[in-house]
Amino acid sequence: MIKYPILETIDGPSDLKKLSYGQLTQLAQEIREKIVDTISGIGGHFAPNLGVVELTIALHYIFNSPQDKIIWDTGHQSYPHKLLTGRRDQLQTVKQYGGISGFPRRYESPHDVFAAGHASTSLSVALGLAKARDARGGTEHVIGVIGDGALTGGISYEALNNIGQYKTNLIVILNDNAFSIARNVGAMTKYLAELRSRPRVRRAEKEIRDFMKGLPFLGTSLQKAADTIEQGLTYLTAPDKMGVLFEEFGFRYIGPIDGHDLKEVMAHLTLAKEMQGPVLLQMVTVKGKGYEPAEQDACTFHGVTPFDIPTGKMQKSSGAPPSYTGVFGDTLVKLAKKDDRIVAITAAMPDGTGLVKFSQEFPDRYYDVGIAEEHAVIFAAGLAVGGMKPVVAIYSTFLQRAFDQIVHDVCLQNLPVVFCLDRAGLVGEDGGAFHGNFDLSYLSVIPNMAIMAPKDENELRHMLFTALSSEKGPVAVRYPRGSGCGVPMDEEMKVLPWGKGEVLREGKGLVFAAVGKMVIHALKAAEILKSQGHEVGVVNARFIKPLDEALLLSLADRYSTIITIEENAVHGGFGSAVLQLYNDRGLLRKVNVQNLGIPDRFIEHGAPAKLLAECGLDPETIAAKARLHIPLAVA
Ligand SMILES: Cc1ncc(C[n+]2csc(CCOP(=O)(O)OP(=O)(O)O)c2C)c(N)n1
């Protein structure tokens, strides 16, 4: 028996357009089943995709992709779109090494108009495409789909402001499910909830009635839908538009629309398609729609590891050491109990950054600012000036957004803000947009900034304590995704010697100077080399900035080859700093310096171990590369 009889016939949007309304609703059901069946087996983004099934079908039915441009914000909800645009049989490879991406990618399909991953970009992209169309004299439709979570990001408002200025034809669909990853926060979120609960305003406008009657695609069943829509039409015009923020921004607002009522969605999209100027449709959807455990707990089911379909129970790796995230969260709670100036800030990632416990213990000292990394950093700067000790917990990749705020608002004034960068290095299956492999480079160029990276979870605790004790100025601690090393945890936290590394192993001829997780890889590589008869040294840098110059210079006296290893872009990070130091001191004629790191290209998705091996950062490859230098070193 064919499990997905209708979906199996869809190789592109044109196949979709041949279906009857009944078949379209059946397709929605099949898409949900396909996502549940596949993602329960391999993991991936889940609840966001179940929430946009009807919307995606309607978009591809009413519009004409790829001529019309559909832009998915963040892009984690693009699985139904991929299923309908020729990638049905590849869903089982999503996010896996060599498989399709979990996000829109231009190289994958002409239907993926713009790459995404970081939130809140779709409206700017849509305006760019619309203005390019206008310049060319084109007629295609441009549709940006943005979640209420992504709408908390500042760029969205910059775009709304600009769209209101240009007033060109452009459709924004606000996929409003009241969730970011966690429940959404902020005044705008409250406002959207208020809009959702407004009684529908029926405008008996001739213009609209005539329009609805003439909808070209409405067969008899949809004609009936049009009647319903007409009855409940929520097309707000003056004076009702008063107070509808989007109207003030220059949009025609349509909503709220039940985003799971396919007829309603299709008819309203048709309406929007015919309207002039910017239009915003508020679609009310349920995150996780159609799979009960996800509807009940949209946050946990935002992104999943493999799970059991009947119960929703996710596989847990039993006996794994505590994660860096968990250790960070627990340690911060412990430190905050002793120091009430410690406050914590997340940009919409309380679970991912390990701040849930903190939020429960210290609700008044905890801030979720929404997907607003730039604001989070300046807000922290304000808190620091006000006498607090702010800890900004943001993934390495998302802190990229706030580079200028770190420079201009924190470092320029040397403010004691502590940055905790989770997911530093290669993150794995999320791929290119999410690897945290630039932080050592972008942070180390900023004056006053100190940067530490722990070799294991025990050292992370000491580093957090050191950072919060120092009050010297801004400090960043960066640590990887996933489990720690399972090392014993010291009872007492200690302040580490500022700007000092540690020698873990002495050797002859060659020494590894490694950063963070790579210290463990260096130790393993040293063991491999030992088994081959070579004793090499290993140094844990601990500080990327300030550099332990005394230690590094002493290494140049004792070793003839120094190999730096970091899970960061090979350019501009620790290795570059070491090279520069040796160059400044005229030591490069004496010492052979080799830098290992992430090569100068974007690394796509796959299991972290595979990606590390691809970058030559696994212990075996490190040892093999070192081996090439050993004869030289010992000679
Ligand atoms: C700049 C940035 N910060 C944080 C994230 C992490 N993140 C991924 S999805 C998401 C929530 C998005 O919520 P919404 O736009 O409402 O989409 P939904 O998942 O609810 O459909 C967040 C915070 C991100 N992708 N980009």
Characterise the protein shown here.
The structure is a single chain. With 635 residues, the chain is an alpha/beta fold. It has 3 domains: 7-296, Rossmann fold (3-Layer(aba) Sandwich); 324-478, 3-Layer(aba) Sandwich (Rossmann fold); 504-634, Rossmann fold (3-Layer(aba) Sandwich), CATH 3.40.50. The chain is built from 25 helices and 19 strands. The strands form 4 sheets. Strands 9-8-10-11-13-12-17 form a 7-stranded mixed β-sheet, sandwiched between helices. The protein has a 5-stranded parallel β-sheet with strand order 2-3-4-6-5, sandwiched between helices. Strand 12, helix 20 and strand 13 (475-478) form a beta-alpha-beta unit. Helix 10 (220-232) packs across helix 12 (262-274) and helix 14 (324-338) packs parallel to helix 20 (457-470). The structure holds thiamine diphosphate.
Features:
single chain, 635 residues, alpha/beta, Rossmann fold, 3 domains, seven-stranded mixed β-sheet, five-stranded parallel β-sheet, 19 strands, globular, binds thiamine diphosphate
Q: Mean of residue pLDDT?
A: 93
User: Proportion of β residues?
Assistant: 15-25%
Structural class: alpha/beta
Which segments are poorly predicted (pLDDT under 50) over 5 or more consecutive residues? 201-207, 231-239
Radius of gyration: 27 Å
The CATH H-level superfamily of the largest domain is Thiamin diphosphate (ThDP)-binding fold, Pyr/PP domains
How are the strands ordered across the major sheet?
A: 9-8-10-11-13-12-17
Shape: globular
CATH A-level architecture of the largest domain? 3-Layer(aba) Sandwich
Total helices: the number is: 25
- Give the helix proportion (percent range): 25-40%
> How many beta-strand elements?
19
CATH topology value of the largest domain: Rossmann fold
CATH class of the largest domain: Alpha Beta
User: What is the CA–CA distance across the termini?
Assistant: 70 Å
Attached small molecules: thiamine diphosphate
Number of domains: 3
